[in-house]
Records
---
Amino acid sequence: MINFKKLFYFLIGSVYIPEELLNTREKILLHISDTPANFFSVLNFLISKLQPDYIIHSGDLVDNIKLEIYPYRLDEYKKKVPQLIKILENSSAKKIYLALGNHDDEEVVNNITNRSKIIEKSDIINLEDLEIKITHFPDEIKKSSSQYNLFGHDLTINSKIEDDKIYLNGILAINVILLESKRIFTLPYPYGTDDSRLGKFKIGF
């Protein structure tokens, strides 16, 4: 029944949130990555339901705009990225971390953020006794890893547990960590998210 609900929500462009997540009293960490603009409204819904205590975005904030390849789309990026920042910073999250991706513009993001911590390449933080490495790039994880490793960019490292370390790729799923029990939930991105990431709706990639 749960699998059917997941599929139904996926196909209608939404995210199924398990009841135990909705009813938890534990603190919540929400991890997302490589988010195209058509995911923003779903993200707003997700945050309103989960009320995460911490949010980590591991880069490419408007992933349907490939700035590194198409720098002439900067004006479009400037219009879209504030929509995401508003959703994140209007949330009740205590702390918000943004790891800049290869398709992000550091100056633009710095100018529009008020309470988010911006991570240029990688950083290790401590949240509720968890040591977490945050980066956009899997290569940074390959250089050195931490207890928890949150990243995006591509699929050169999948989500896995290896040598008692946890690796969560934010492209593969929306990751939710309950910070007391350390339980991890992976929620599928809505239908069409990957197509938007690849620019199939507008431009070839």
---
Amino acid sequence: MDHVDAIGPVLVVVPTYNERDNIGPLLTKLLAMTPAVDVLVVDDASPDGTGEIADALAASDERAHVLHRERKSGLGAAYVAGFRWGLARGYAALVEMDADGSHDPGDLPRLLDALREHDVVLGSRYVPGGNVLNWPGHRRLLSRGGNVYSRMALGVRINDITSGFRAYRREVLDALPLDEIASQGYCFQIDLAWRSVTAGYSVAEVPITFVERETGNSKMSGAIVREAMLNVGVWGLRHRATQLRGLLARAVRR
């Protein structure tokens, strides 16, 4: 697979909490459709046995791995733990992917192809060719609104900055201060994309089809939405203040 060979070894990081009905079908499909990648399940001590199911699948396929954490500590912390696991083992690219079946493994080669020319690639629902299936109206409005708000507040030209299906070159994650990132949920995705942009990395979007989960419960909550709105607002104000100070400094020098 040229898109993998040109990048180096790829690790797909899949955080889980109570996804026993989804993790088996996802791993089976992912490993069958993308035979040149490895996958790491990061399980937050799921009481429904998700971790044990992942262990059984990993025992039968050397490309599958499981990282067990002692408690539920949030999406952001799970991804950071997965990134560190992959970086320590020499993976050249690390991919974020949801466990609930909303991300199609068939879209992964498109992300990896784009990663040959960019540092970060987001699987976008809101670029030409992207799509969302089976989402109720209020979820569509929330997602669209969150992306518009983030784009305006931060001044970035990213259409789907909250996307949870994305790929990073290891150089990006090596350079970013992962230990400083306390954001969760949507906000974690915004945080990493924002840090990548401000650090000068090349960020691209490719179209994906997002499908609402068929089984299990969404982890979305009001607290996650509030965290994103507050943090993005603060980051945006700081960004505008920095821009203003720069303009004033240049005006004084003239």
---
Amino acid sequence: MEPVVALERIAFLLERADAPTYKVAAFRHAAEVVRGLPRVELLRRAVAGRLTELEGIGPTTATVITEAAADRTPAYLADLEQRARTPLVDGGRRLRAALRGDCHLHSDWSDGGSPIATMAGAARDLGHEWAVLTDHSPRLRIARGLSAERLREQLAVVAGVNRELAPFRLLTGIECDILADGRLDQDRELLARLDLVVASAHSELRMAPEAMTRRLLTAVRDPLVDVLGHCTGRLLGGKRRPESGFDAEQVFAACAESGTAVEINSRPDRLDPPRRLLRLAVDAGALFAVDSDAHAPGQLDWQIRGCARAEECGVPPERVVNTWTAEELLEWTRAGESEPRA
């Protein structure tokens, strides 16, 4: 096993296990250091025990590099691989096997931790045929949301990634903030050029239920919106945040009528919508997008959590847009728009 491969695989498995960011960063940084070293120098340092003299290489990463350079599976990696054999969640395997893509992932262009090409390559390696890059919109400054200018620049980068990774397809998209009045936080002309738009509320989440209902109804009825992201805005675990209040029956009925998919967000700190609301969306006849909302390569594997919840709540697989081919997905996102996409 090449040392770079071992280091990157460890980082992936740590991300999958939701390990602390600093620990993941140590292995990814070590991989970059090793990638820049001539093979002869790497081996010489490994044999002499001088890897830790390199900036960013500590005792643990040095041991991994030394073992991999000696054609041994590093013990650290073997332990992580053993733990990864335990499923993240019970259930979901049948739906996960049917998924062709992921409609919601982030890169280091906003608040993700990895380059676009790295995220796309990881999605491909997990068996996906396509994925949608959905970095944040301008209002979310804390997440380095993309201005219209930066988003246009990103479209050119995505085109280059697609030339490198074909036949895998990275589709253009955005996670667009839903403003307080239901409008979208980006130029409509630019949104119309994207392959898919996820619309999510990230601010003013405690507004009165009547106002939040109007806000979400305006968004899901917008012809440019394809997916309603993490609809309640809740957070679980240490950063706990309660659900936003809104009339779920009205909103999901509008999603069904407008052809807007309800996202089943697979992040362990979201798992949104809650099961009771997910069952309401099923009864309303809505479409669904089972998404990782990944901010790092290893988090792409979190989709299984959403698949398990979908199976548990009776979501019909044929109503999950991730089971469609890229061509079928694009036909859906472009259907019935008053502002045709370029």
---
Amino acid sequence: MSPYSRRAFLAAAGIGLLAGCAGGDPADPADPADRADRAASTTPSAPLPSVTPPAGAARPLERSAPVALRIPAIGVDTPVVRLGLQADGSVEVPAVTADDRAGWYRYSPTPGQTGPSVLLGHVTVGKYGDGVFRRLDRLRPGDGITARLENGTTAEFAVTAVRTVGKKEFPTTDVYGNVARPELRLITCGGPLTGDEYRDNVIVFAVLTPAGER
């Protein structure tokens, strides 16, 4: 596991993942509905094994932070901000603003590097309406995702799976665990809204295509 994916995994395993799902009125930061919801996670009981890249896997790209994300199938074309960890060790989420943006968790690999690159986005942004990942659950295997990188290149991914899981069953290993090829994870909230929290997380899994760099 790379230093980036290891740090990402340990953060998620120890604290849990904040997956942007703000609701309510963002003008009042004390409103609990403005807080992103926490997805429960568990610590793996054994070290993650090393893995061998599958035949035909795309060649990994150089490390370069993402600056924009496009998902044509659901009309997403967003700048990407960098996210780190909050004081309590939980994962940051993008700020709740009218100009909603996706965020890249900077302790994960960059899109196109070997390992799981993790991006988070809101499903709703309070009084501003829909979040950037509002339609994430509509993606289907084969849909394309393009990450534009800081070095001027792009990384092209294809969706392999879309999962909606209860937050108490958040699959930390599947999201942050070691993989032998460049992959992408997009995360938001989903399912019914109960009080000020969404019940579930929506997770999109994608893999770098063989012609993944332009």
